[in-house]
Every structure is written in C-alpha cells, then in structure tokens.
Amino acid sequence: MKFINSNQILLAAAFLPLWGYAQETKLDSIQEVMVHANRLQIPFSKDNRNVEILSAEQIKQLPVKNLNEVLGFLNGVDLRQRGPFGAQADVSIDGGSFEQTLILVNGAKVSDSQTAHHSLNLPIPLDAIERIEVLRGAAARIYGINALTGAINIITKTVNKTSIQANVYTGSPFKNRDEEDKDGIYYHAGTQVGAGWFKEKHQHQFFYNKEKSNGQRYNTASQNDKIFYQGNLAIDDHNEMEWLGSYMYNRFGANGFYAAPGDRESEEIVETVFASLGSKHQLSERFYLSPRITNRYNEDDYRYMRQNLAVGRSQHYTNAFSIELNSRYQTTFGDFGLGLESRLDRIASSNMGDHNRNNHGAYAEFRTEEIKNMSVNVGAYINYNTQYGWQVYPGIDLGYSITPKWKLVFNTGTSQRIPSFTDLYLNQRPGNIGNPDLFSEDAWQTEGAIKFQSTNFIAHGGYFYRNIRNFIDWIKTDVNDPYQPFNIGKNKVHGINTNFLYTFQADDIRYRVNLGYNYLHASLVQTEDVISKYSLENLKHQAKLLFMANNSVWNASIANRFNQRISDKSYFLTDIRIGYNFPSLSIYTDAQNIFDVTYIETSAIPMPGRWYSLGVFYRL
After folding, report:
1. Where is 6: in which H helix or E strand?
2. Is residue 144 classed as helix, strand or coil in its secondary structure?
3. Disulfide: which of 20, 217, 431, 552 matches 259 by Cβ 3.0-4.6 Å?
4. Residue 16 domain-assigned (yes or no)
5. How far is 206 from 74, CA to CA, in rounded Å?
C-alpha cells in the first residue's frame, strides 16, 4: 500500500477554513428529484433505497472530460479502465462483476448482450446529461434481469433555450510515450459541437464529438466519433413524446487488454447505434401510461493480430430490440405500478456462431404512505427467458421516519444475471473459450440504513449482505490453458457504505462538499488452485472527498479518491479543475493525478501519471 503524504493531506484540506462562513441556503432541488429508478415516480427524499444522484451542476465542475471518468466519482462504483479517455472501460457496483451491473439511458436498457465490455460504449456528451442515478442493491424487481448488484441510469436534459456551442480541449503529461520515445509526447485532444432548438411545443438537441489520443504505451492509440440527438414533443397538456438516436465509432489499440501477453498487436473497432421512441400519457386524473420501443445494434471487430487479419480475428454483430409498457394508477391508499416488457437478442459472430434468445417480463408494484410514519414499496418481477425458463424476483422496501429529518430504511430482494453470449459461446483460443452449460447467476440481498436530510445536508449510512448462487467467473487451472467461465459456487459480500453531501453559501460563493466511504468483505466458495480472471480484484476500501466552489464568474474543485483492492493494490488520486466564465466563453484547466501516482485499474495496464488539460467552451 502506498501511503498518503503530507502534501496530499494539506491540499485536500486547503478549502476547509471557508466552512466558517456558511449561511442557510436552499440545497439543489435534488431532494425533490423524481427518481427514475422507481416506476412509481418517488421523490429522492422519500425513496427507501440506496440511491445516489450526481447532478449536471456537479458534473460540470468535476475535472472530467467524458462519462467514464464521471462514474469513477460515484460511491460504490468501481470503474476499471483499460485505457483513458473512453478507449475501453468496465463498471461494477459494490464488489460485483462488470456483467452484473445494468446500464440505462432514461430508463431504457443499453447493456450489451455480447459482453458487458461494451456497455459503456455510450455517445452521450456531458453537456446533455441532466443527472446520473445510481441504484445499489438487487434491482430485478424494478428493472428485470441483469440488474444483479444495481443499476446506473443516465438521465438526459430537455432543451430550455435555443443555443449553439463548441468545446475544444487538449491534454498531455508532457512526457514521451512509454516504450516508444521516438514517437514523442503522449497527448489527447477532442472537439465537440452542439446545438439546441427550443420551441414551446417541441425541443431538439444535437451533438457531435471527436476525440483522439496517440496512446501512452505501444499500440494503445485511440480515436472515437460520437453523434447524439434527442427530441421532445408536447402534443397537449396530457400527452407527450420523446425520441433519441445515437452513434459511436470507437477504435483503439488493445495491447494487453484481454489476452496478455500474446495480444501485443491486438486492435479493436466497436460501432454502436442506439435509438428509442417513447411517449407519456395521462389518461385520467389518476391513470398514467408510458409505452416505449428501443433498438441497440453493435458491431465488434477484434483483431488479435492487426497486421494479419487471418489470425485470431473475431467479428460480432448483435442486435437487441425491446418494447415495454409501463403504467401507474394512483388511489387514496397508495399507488400501483404495472408493466410488461420484451427483449429480443440476436448475435451473428465469426467465432460464436449465430444465436438468439427472447426475454419477456412483467412487474407489479405497490407503494403506500398510509401507515403512520412509514412508507412501503412491495412488488415482484416475473420473467421468462427462452434459454433459462421462468423465474420470479420479489422485493420489499420499508422506510420509517423517526423525525422529519431522520429516517430508517430496510430493503430486501432477489436478482439475476443471464450469461452473455461471450460467456456461453466464445471460441477465441488460446486466450478465452465459452461454456454453453452455464446456469444463470441468482442473488439475494438485504440492506438496512439510516438517512438524514435537511436544507443543506444529506447523509446516508448503511450495511448490506449479498449472497450470489451459481457465481460465474472466468478461471483456469494452468497458466497455459485458456480462460473459461464456470458456475464456481457462492459469492458472499458484507458491505458498509456511507455518503455525505453538504451544501452552503457564503456571500455570492456556493460551496459543496461530498464525502463517501465504502467497505466490502467478500468471500468466494470455489475450487482451490485456480487462476481467476476477475473476481480477485474487487474493491475492499473506497473513499472519496470532493470539494467544489463556484459563483457566476469562476469555479474550482478538488477531487480525491482512494481505492484498495482485495489484492492489496491501492492508490490515492487527486484531481483539480479551475474555470473562469466570460459572457459567452468559458476557459477551464485540469490537473489530474497531480501527485503522479503509478496505479493500475485492471489487468497489467498502467494508467497515466500526472496530466494537464486545457479547454475552451463557447456558447451562443
């Protein structure tokens, strides 16, 4: 473990004397945000789950350039990048695997059925994000399959003014690339243009983003293009429509990403198209209906030897078409939620073959506050999968208000993850092979917590226990064998999580402090003397301290993160952003990993050291 030095402690505490000037101010409307994690539209302040919300204002002040980097600042979320700046990353929640976390955009599932390695292939610009919601714990009752350890829901903005904007940024450590000094300085650069069109009845927004990096190491250069469009139409006071379309092209050198050390010359090209069309209807004073259709198409071209495409090349074409119908009915004694959904998954692959499977689900949920000082959410999700048959996922959430500010919550429920096509059918010798005889993973999780909410302060502290049966891990018994997935036993996790958000104002300056700590104790019952690909790298300790200050002219933030994994690898990172605003122009500069810490998030791939960035944002 690398210990924190005195400079890091001083820097983290640099702004603390300003606390003495705090005055009463109204917290962001976060407490009354309608959490999309629940189809019954519950305000954040009344939710009985462990939900964390990161608002657009907070995202704007963080020292980040893309969605992947933002996720690394969320409590209990483990972001493991194989390359910075969106090259490739996996995300998991509370010690689960990257396959056990469900990713959504505005409530629509975008997780990849080929492999969750592509679930974050999302072309959503930070300027289009309203907030990010993280629902931790078993979420099958709410979202159905594959939300085994939780879900991350990205909520996009609705345009409120007509505008044109441009954002240009670049960064470098001002050091030569590792292993290739002759290729000069390592750099990253990007540009983004966008426009919003606002009319009383309809609104539209469009973004195009291009990024490029020459790679920190040999064969890790990357480039990506992102297109994002969203529209809204208010038909009348009781009916509205919304639609979304996006495209992402991502090409990167994959040296050491999946099958080190033999994949030194590997390259990967991933293209993703996602579209959704939905509507909301108030059919009576108490009855609401929301249908939606979505389609996600993904092409993955993995080239084990980029100079010789006849050796080890894998091409995968997947498509997921979904249709869903959600409804809500309000009564004097509580609210009912009912819904149906179907998802049709298809894959055509050069080394997996052609496969398809269909998934159909139905849910029922009831919420009431008619019991004194209590709120109750109870429901179940019934699922039928053409490959794994029928399953039922019940759950219940309870909340008891001790005082108007203090609340006890308890929830318990079940969840499942169906193996991906890669788990089942991959044939990529000598690195990895699938296992068509896998069972699905099943989990049961219970959590108890205490919450505090006031005008300026939100706090959460809780304990959870999760038990996963038929846990899937990629293992091998000999270093010369390929990795293959097996249902190796039970995965049990005890966890403690805390999060504190304090907001205050002094004169015209607004301050925000966010502190969080998570502890996980995991045990895995499996065959001894096996080499694991994923499970031995889970986080054990995770802590964050974010401090932000801003007024109408400038903003500043300092972000500290500490991660320690079960393997005893640990690192402490400190990032800083300073920005200055002119009437139509903003200039910002970041210093990331300012103490030049050497660290690894996954495999044996070193992440960048100290990094400096400069950006200019123009809005008309």
Report:
1. helix 6-12
2. coil
3. 431
4. yes
5. 27
